[in-house]
């Protein structure tokens, strides 16, 4: 669960990168493992075959060398000096012993010359021993009293004796001996003549070593018979115990040649063996450490691991770039989404590909188009709603003013002031012409000022001595600027009705229009009774349930609907000290009054 939670916590890029790395790792590992197994199998098979061939070749060489010695001794029995010696043995004639010894020296020399492995030759006969005079014969040891004689009597055929100390000559070296009995010309007669040929153990060891590259392969050898007796000395074999030898020898009986693995002195070793024909039951054994034998395989294994490690490092860089390349369209789509979050609905996804990400991008574009269309519909709807609200608010202003004006005209008419009535009706008509503005909600600043003047003219007819006014237009004011209509007239009306409600004369209204920091400032100030600003603000917030502050609330609402945060209304007043209403509008230059 922890691994699952950790995996889910990774970013999409990390999961893609991790997936690619795992796939590359598995692919390289599988490929490397398969390659290693194939190569190891081939190398191991070749190593086994080479080791087996080496042992077989060495066994053949040793076998051939021993056979040659046997054949040489057979040929010795056919030489004339030997035949003459056999005649004297048959007749028990000892008088020509030294003559036969001398004649045989030449034969001995010839055999020693042609076969350097022959160290000494002894011919044991009832009339005396014959041997090369270059060798010193030990007279205290008779062949007929030795164990070799008893073995020869039992074997009744030529046989080879494993390593033993030479008991017949003075050098007392370790030798391997060939013992064969001779047959004379008289049938069924036991001549009791034997030929003993000694071969130096060291010479046989050298013969074995010369046919093996022990330095490269680490090959050691053992030369034993089936009873486990050493033919030549072997330190490896001598270091083993009797129990091991017994179990080891059982593995050698299966075939003439073969190989198997066996733990030798704690090390797994390859055992190759081959039987010799001459020795009868002699077995030449090659021993190689499995680890050293398979050193080439281990080299392949290390090379495979290095290659695998290198490929993994390469995969980290490749997968990083590949992940970035694969996820580049998603990053692009993500950036577009961030732009949309910043209200940039004009962002669009574009890609030359036609893959799944491109299809998502195209649907994202369609979604943006639909959202933009819906927003536009909502905006248009809100705009129409705003226009309707503005018209409704404007319409609310007109009847309010019209009621007061018509009431005044009525009063004038009753009093018979026909000239004032005529002027008021003309001013009222002019006001309505400007106020209607052909259905437009926006007028030029000049028209708005004229509309206000017409109202003031009408009110002067109604209240002759109540107030006077002064209009101040700053030098930087552009009278062609576009403003929302019917802004000044309600402020002036509010000053007359509420500011001067408790006086009969002496009222004064100052109307100022100027520009401040890219804002058009409209100010209406009176010297009336003033107002409680907090109460006015409170009544403006509850304009639907209170008649107080109605005009101000109407204007504030209209400003908010059209200008939003770009316009505001500020109130300044102290009770009994007059009041000032200031409108701050954005400057909108123009020559017409279109919405």
Automatic annotation (TrEMBL):
Membrane topology, as annotated: Multi-pass membrane protein
CDD domains per record: HAMP (cd06225)
Gene Ontology CC entries for this record: plasma membrane
InterPro entries cross-referenced by the UniProt entry: Bact_2-comp_sensor_kinase, HAMP_dom, HATPase_C_sf, HATPase_dom, Sig_transdc_His_kin_internal
Location relative to the cell: Cell membrane
The HAMP domain, residue ranges: 324-376
Transmembrane residue ranges: 305-327
GO molecular function, one term: phosphorelay sensor kinase activity
Keywords from the UniProt entry: ATP-binding, Cell membrane, Kinase, Membrane, Nucleotide-binding, Phosphoprotein, Transferase, Transmembrane, Transmembrane helix, Two-component regulatory system
This protein's name: Sensor histidine kinase
Organism annotation: Paenibacillus contaminans
Organism classification: Bacteria, Bacillati, Bacillota, Bacilli, Bacillales
């Amino acid at each position: 669960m922890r691994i699952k939670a950790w995996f889910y916590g990774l970013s999409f890029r990390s999961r893609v990168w991790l997936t690619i790395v795992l796939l590359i790792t598995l692919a390289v590992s599988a490929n490397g493992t398969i390659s290693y197994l194939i190569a190891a199998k081939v190398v191991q098979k070749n190593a086994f075959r080479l080791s087996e061939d080496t042992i077989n070749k060495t066994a053949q060489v040793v076998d051939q060398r021993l056979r040659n010695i046997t054949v040489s001794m057979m040929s010795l029995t056919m030489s004339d000096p030997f035949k003459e010696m056999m005649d004297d043995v048959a007749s028990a004639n000892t008088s020509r012993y030294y003559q036969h010894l001398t004649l045989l020296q030449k034969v001995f020399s010839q055999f020693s010359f042609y076969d350097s492995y022959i160290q000494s030759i002894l011919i044991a006969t009832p009339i005396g021993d014959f041997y090369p005079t270059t060798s010193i014969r030990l007279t205290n040891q008779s062949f007929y009293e030795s164990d070799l004689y008893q073995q020869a009597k039992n074997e009744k055929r030529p046989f080879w004796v494993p390593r033993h100390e030479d008991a017949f000559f003075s050098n007392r070296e370790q030798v391997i001996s060939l013992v064969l009995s001779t047959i004379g010309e008289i049938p069924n007669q036991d001549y009791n003549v034997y030929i003993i040929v000694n071969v130096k153990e060291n010479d046989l060891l050298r013969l074995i070593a010369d046919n093996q590259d022990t330095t490269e392969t680490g090959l050691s050898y053992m030369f034993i018979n089936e009873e486990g007796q050493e033919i030549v000395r072997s330190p490896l074999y001598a270091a083993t115990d009797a129990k091991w030898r017994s179990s080891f020898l059982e593995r050698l009986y299966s075939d003439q040649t073969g190989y198997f693995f066996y733990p030798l002195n704690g090390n797994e070793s390859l055992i190759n063996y081959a039987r010799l024909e001459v020795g009868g039951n002699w077995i030449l054994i090659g021993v190689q450490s499995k680890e050293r034998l398979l050193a080439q395989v281990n080299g392949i294994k290390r090379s495979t691991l290095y290659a695998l490690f290198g490929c993994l490092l390469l995969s980290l860089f490749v997968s990083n770039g590949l992940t970035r390349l694969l996820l580049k369209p998603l990053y692009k789509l993500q950036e577009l989404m961030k732009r949309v979050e910043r209200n940039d609905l004009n962002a669009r996804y574009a890609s030359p590909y036609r893959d799944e990400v491109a299809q998502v991008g195209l649907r994202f574009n369609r979604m943006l188009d639909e959202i933009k269309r819906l927003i536009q519909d909502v905006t248009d709807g809100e705009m129409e709603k705003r226009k309707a609200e503005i018209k409704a608010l404007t319409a609310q202003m007109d009847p309010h003013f019209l009621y007061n004006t018509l009431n005044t005209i009525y009063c004038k008419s009753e009093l018979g002031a026909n000239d004032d009535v005529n002027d008021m009706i003309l001013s009222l008509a002019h006001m309505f012409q400007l106020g209607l503005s052909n259905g437009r909600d926006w007028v030029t600043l000049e028209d708005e000022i004229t509309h206000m003047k017409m109202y003031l003219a009408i009110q002067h007819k109604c209240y002759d001595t109540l107030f006077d006014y002064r209009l101040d237009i700053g030098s930087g004011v552009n009278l062609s600027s576009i403003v929302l209509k019917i802004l000044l007239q309600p402020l002036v009306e509010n000053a007359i009705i509420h500011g001067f409600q408790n006086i009969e004369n002496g009222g004064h209204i100052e109307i100022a229009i100027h520009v401040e920091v890219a804002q058009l400032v409209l100010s209406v100030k009176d010297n009336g009774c003033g107002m409680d600003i907090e109460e006015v603000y409170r009544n403006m917030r509850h304009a639907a349930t209170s008649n107080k502050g109605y005009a101000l609330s109407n204007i504030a609402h209209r400003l908010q609907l059209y200008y939003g945060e770009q316009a505001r209304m500020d109130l300044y007043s102290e009770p009994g000290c007059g009041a000032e209403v200031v409108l701050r509008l954005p400057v909108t230059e123009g020559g017409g009054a279109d919405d």
